Queue: 4 jobs
Job 1
Amino acid sequence: MARTTRMTQTPRTPSRRRRRAVPAALAAMLTLVLVAAGLGGLVVWQNSYELREEAVTIRQGGRVLNGVLALPAQGKGPYPLVVFVHGDGPVDATHDTFYRPMWEAFARSGHASLSWNKPGVGGAPGDWLDQSMDDRADEAADAITWARRHPDVDGARIGLWGASQAGWVLPKIAARDPGIRFAIAVSPAVNWLRQGRYNLLAELSRDGASDMEVAAALARRETGLELLARGASYEEYVRAVGDPEGMTAARWRFASKNHTADVSADLPALRGTPVLLVLAGHDVNVDIAETEAAYRRLLPGPALQVAHYPDAGHGLLDHAIEKSSLRLTLTALCAPRALFAEGFLADQARFVSRALAAGS
């Protein structure tokens, strides 16, 4: 009979398995911590900008504005100044940090930037929905008067930057202040009513609306316009259309003040001033063909420059990025400068430098 040999092993006790598992768990936890720290460090680094920000309180013309003056990181002023004029909505001084990559690009070229909270935003007094475009121009003119007294600002070299709705404000500012040296108009419209219709139809088309849905939306719009034209109250509007669909009483009041806005009468105030018109290829808010035609007609000559960004949306963000909420969030956190269309940040700074050099 063959002899069998029993092989004996020391059994693995639960305590020994736990002792081996603990280092593995610690290693995994340490890896996660290091990855999180690395990502956190990347986010902090990418959202740190090469500039100096100074919180300012602008008191001028009986109004108080809470703002930010962004200065070059190195050197001593006075610096040329870019005054930021917001588009629509409750925008704070940094536009939820959206402006900072632009401020940095300007700062690296030796320019300061000035922006402020809209009335009612971030604790600022007032309500931006109570403003007309003329009110907004008066506000900006007061801010410029204040800036000319600031020791870090070269009062003889001040220009404007404005997006979207600010297109109706920039020429009004220039009419009030002949010392404006340049203007950058980003995605501006020409006529409030035509812009609204274009935007409505573009969004309906984008969303795949049926012919019936388009007809209903246009009919509803016409009802609203008729009521605006005769100065109807918000209550009349609600009775006429039923569900207000986001049109609040304050927004109706704002539309009542501004629905007749048209840049045609004001834009000639910028004739002879260097103007950079910035247009986006994926703009569903503004008819860029109408805008470009109007600017070329009303601002003839070499002072007008037109820059097209075919891959950008209305806010000059890269369209491929902004159409994905996940990609938009990750880019905003990890590479905020890459949010914008390629070349946009550098092109603006280059335009301001050349405009000021040409006029010096």
Job 2
Amino acid sequence: MQRTREEAINGLLPDQREALILERLRTHGRVLAAELAAELQTSEHTVRRHLRDLADQGHCKRVYGGALLMSPADKPAAVRMHEAVDRKARLAAAAVSIVRPKQIVLLDAGSTNVAIAAALPENAGLTVVTNSPEACARLLNRPGLDVILVGGRIASGAAGSLGATALLQIQQIRADLCFLGACAFDPDEGVAAFDAEDAELKRAMVKASGQLAIALTSEKLMTAGRFAVAPVSAVDYLFVEADVPGARVASLRAVCDNVMVARP
């Protein structure tokens, strides 16, 4: 049986080999060129060429020693708002457990953070600052919530305001807690975004906040984005879904102090 498998691997055409590498990326998130070369019985040079081609096609980002899957979250906000609604609600229920009365909460745009807005406790004297019109709509007319909507330009397909106006307003805030939207998250590469302006605003949110929390759907874990936002060491609380394997949760806890798993 082993010999048959080896013969099959030796007989792979370049396109088949590249498809297998892409499958490994989608399964594991991160791949190493040396390990792939050994598995496919080819040279690391050949594997790196395949990884370069996959990166050119937008499937992955080249990192030291291998590649990281690009996050699948690069979709219009209107699409993301209707995806995995129940999963995001469970993440939100876990995330709001760290909110304390009378805090200033900075709530970034994003569909999971809209779910957090809906789950925030009432009559707790919270001031919620957000650049998300969708989140603002979930907060209005609820008792004990003071809401501040950050202004600015809302780009086509974006979930919230961006640009110089939004950036200036965020820089003037001193929040107790920030729920940051993350397009991609990897223990080594950190938090990333797809848009340069969005990444700049997110970095300002990190600087403006005493504590940083991220609630993350599973498909964004072990993936890359185009623009760096923050290292994992900046994240005080990470909320993940119940389907994340135990070994992966352990690897996250090795770099983040508080990793909390939402209820299934």
Job 3
Amino acid sequence: MKIFKFGGASTKDAESVKNVVSVITKTAEKDLVIVVSAMGKTTNALEEVLKDYFSEDGNLKHSLQFVYDYHHNILNGLFSSPQHPAFENLNRIFKELERFLETNKSKNHAFVYDQVVSFGELISSTIIAAYFEENGINNTWLDVRQCIKTDANYRDANVDWEKTQQTISDKVSLKGITVTQGFLGSENTNNFTTTLGREGSDYTAAIFAYCLNAESVTIWKDVPGVLNADPRYFTETQLFNHISYREAIELAFYGASVIHPKTLQPMQRKEIPLYVKSFLNPTAPGTCVGKGVLLDPMTSCFILKKNQVLISLSSLDFSFMMEDHIGDVFKWLHKFKMKVELIQNSAISFSVCVDNKFNNLEPLLAKLREKFSVKWNENVTLYTIRHFNPAEVKALAENKNVLLKQESKETVQLIIKE
């Protein structure tokens, strides 16, 4: 049994879905769990649906129609007859979404978010399962919410591993092909849909691999494997043939976008290899993450995170920033769901770079001002270089406004105001 995961870029249109069939055919794997994300930018489109739903000025009908038309066009490109059951399934799922929006009474944005954006994966997996059948690939469609059980921490749910192990063991066959959704789970008490965080489909693949003792996981991407830098921002990138679990976890922690930060821990615990391969060239070896050499080839790794916030604090009475002060800061960072990317402190100051992904900056700053003098910079960029050399750091910082620099033996980080 192997696990394949296909992201939104690999299923963004009809031709891409056809290519997924080609990948399955070329790899000739017979026993698979195939985890799929929402198609293309569907999650973003469903976030627009949410924005319109909660806004008095929003055009909910228009944003819903956009999502429907996008998937309907993909169906037109895959199936010759509009009478194919896939069209009826799309209508059925879309009616469920509309029914939820009409009847929902909750004002909890995170709860509503998970109920709405989950329809992206439900639609994509249904379309792909139907197209597989159309092309002679027998498969079983599985609602992942019956398998991955979580707490009620909506938008970033924590997996209940004991219950998840039991449900996956009960519901997933080790033979044949199963098509299911990434990113989703359901909370234990009321079975409401939860999500595992953005890009959580990689994590879903790892959960299935761990619970099924899979032979391997392959993540199919639009890149040849794991590169030492994002080619959108850096030139002359290098492909890694192999990365150790430890190094991959470090890269994920610092924000490397190819592998989800949560994905690697369950893989490492059972020493299941993770492959990152190109869906455009499925026979190429790609990158293997597993036991063995740290990096092959050994070279510097460049990681870039945009749209970060640098917050600088000092005590109001110029007293030392001691453990009790810093403890309060981290308590509030946790309360307002700020992901900490970097910290630096001195006797009377404390700086922290955070990812404001839940848009809670204003209430956090208000709370911090009660106890500290607060300065902040929004829209800063955090650069991280693993296994750096001084010339690379100098070149990166040249002619840039460096707000903060932090260096250790293996890693240097720069916060730059572009």
Job 4
Amino acid sequence: MTSARPTARFTDRSALVTGAGSGLGRAIARALAAEGAKVVVSGRTAASLAETVALIEADGGTAAAVTADVADAGSVRELVRRTVELHGGLDVAVNNAGVFRGGTSTADFPLDAWRELLDTNLTGVLHSLQAEIAHMRAHGGGSIVNISSNLGAHVRLPGLSGYQVSKAAVSALTRAAALDHIAEGVRINAVSPGASESAMSLLPGETEAERDVRMKGQSPLGRLTSAAEVAAAVLYLASDDAGSAVGTDLVVDGGVSA
């Protein structure tokens, strides 16, 4: 006998998704809401967050938008405070906010781009973890999923040293934080997508159709990873189904890093 797949794993739970104004963050937020979560979507641009909220509400879900900049620790603490105020707690957090900069060799990598990558992709995750864990460990625990990348800890390409360093560090930070806080009831994991349905996977001047053709040759799977597939991996790790997953870095890249 097989049991039916759960369709409401996050009913009565409060979830926060950073970088939720578009792309993977929007897909993750919609997937959480579809399974019953009350979602706060966050990012730096109010208009795009409003679009995400409208999509969730059109699907029958519950969502609110709070603007924040993960590079600013105070902004993130206020984001968590507002999430708790709006939805009564914080049970699930997905730290997805990130930026992509590349196309320059290590010797010539601009220091301002390097700092932006580390401030947002790495220190932004640390700010988020610190604010989220502070609430969760005082209120019975919770689950956190950091969005890393297959680029960094799993695959390296030329011209992307800053991005790859920032994401490899997220993978390492995830494992370290997971060990630090599992005894406090806070379970922390990561998902490392490869090229997927987001603007970050487009080369300069490339169309989505051209990207699809390119991925047929670059991915062993022969196609781009869908945003829904990445979201499904995130929801698995965030859910009780993954209760023994601690410090996992789940790569979802169609076999590129296999």
